């Protein structure tokens, strides 16, 4: 019988098969192996007048037992080929995905960003806001010398960050309703008037009005500038991270990812070689099955032909005796 151990000398890491279950080989009986003895069996059955059906069933059953081992190996080889085809399909899918990832990555381009410029603007906006706090504190301490720090923080935060909208009224072309104007200007105006009331007795009228005008526009614009710059900085930071990640992936696409494709192609080639070896053995096993089947048909034909000749001879002798 054929041995399958030579098929798996170079298995890939992804291909692991169980050992073949040994099937005992069935030895043909002597009368079936030797043509002369098989002829004698046919002659004996023909001369005795027995029906050949049972003997033919015995011949067929014996050959079916002989065919059990190669049929089992044939089924086992088909299973292995199916497993190898599945592994090849999976690796080919990985190869296609990797090549698509390489082409898509190399086709992308980085997006220009202004992270440095926005970072400097954010730092200046933060410095501007906290400098305003000291200006407010200086105006508050005339009326509230003991609690100037806390009151200054309250006025500072309520004036600066009472409302955060993406677009200020001075930057929009939409019609302005009184509710929208009150929502945006109400609290900054109130904070500036509160400060004006605290410094009026201590400043000349034109200095007090300049203080009022300066703090009003600080409240209206600086808070929105800080918060919008923070949002802008986040957008620019995301662009910077995406560019950094893209540049890193492009380096991988030039070096490591092609190596992965080469390794997959090499593994697929090894599996194809292994599959080819199994197909070769499968062809040998199928040829063996066909040969044994042909031997079975030949044995049945030989037995029947001798049986018919002996039967005919018996009838002719019987006629001679009757005469």
Automatic annotation (TrEMBL):
Transmembrane annotation, as ranges: 115-136, 148-170, 209-227
UniProt KW keywords: Membrane, Transmembrane, Transmembrane helix
UniProt protein name: Uncharacterized protein
């Amino acid at each position: 019988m054929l041995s399958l151990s030579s098929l798996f000398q170079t298995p890939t890491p992804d291909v692991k098969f169980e050992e073949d279950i040994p099937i005992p080989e069935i030895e043909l009986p002597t009368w079936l192996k030797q043509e002369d003895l098989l002829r004698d069996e046919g002659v004996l059955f023909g001369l005795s007048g027995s029906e050949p059906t049972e003997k033919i069933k015995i011949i067929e059953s014996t050959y079916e037992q002989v065919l059990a081992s190669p049929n089992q190996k044939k089924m086992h080889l088909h299973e292995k080929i199916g497993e190898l085809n599945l592994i090849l399909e999976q690796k080919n899918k990985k190869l296609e995905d990797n090549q698509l990832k390489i082409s898509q990555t190399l086709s992308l381009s980085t997006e220009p960003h202004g992270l440095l410029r926005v970072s400097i603007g954010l730092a200046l906006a933060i410095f501007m806001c906290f400098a305003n706090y000291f200006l407010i504190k200086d105006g508050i301490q005339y009326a509230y010398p003991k609690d100037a720090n806390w009151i200054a923080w309250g006025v500072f935060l309520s004036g600066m960050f009472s409302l955060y909208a993406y677009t200020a009224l001075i930057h929009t072309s939409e019609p302005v309703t009184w509710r929208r104007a009150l929502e945006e200007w109400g609290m900054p105006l109130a904070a500036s008037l509160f400060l004006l009331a605290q410094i009026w007795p201590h400043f000349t009228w034109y200095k007090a009005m300049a203080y009022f005008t300066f703090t009003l526009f600080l409240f209206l614009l600086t808070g929105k500038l800080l918060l919008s710059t923070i949002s802008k900085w986040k957008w620019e930071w995301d662009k910077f991270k995406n560019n950094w990640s893209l540049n890193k992936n492009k380096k991988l696409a030039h070096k490591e990812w092609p190596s992965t494709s080469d390794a997959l192609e090499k593994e697929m080639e090894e599996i194809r070689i292994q599959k080819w070896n199994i197909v070769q053995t499968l062809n040998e096993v199928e040829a063996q099955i066909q040969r044994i089947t042909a031997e079975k048909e030949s044995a049945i034909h030989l037995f029947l032909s001798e049986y018919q000749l002996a039967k005919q001879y018996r009838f002719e002798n019987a006629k001679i005796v009757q005469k």
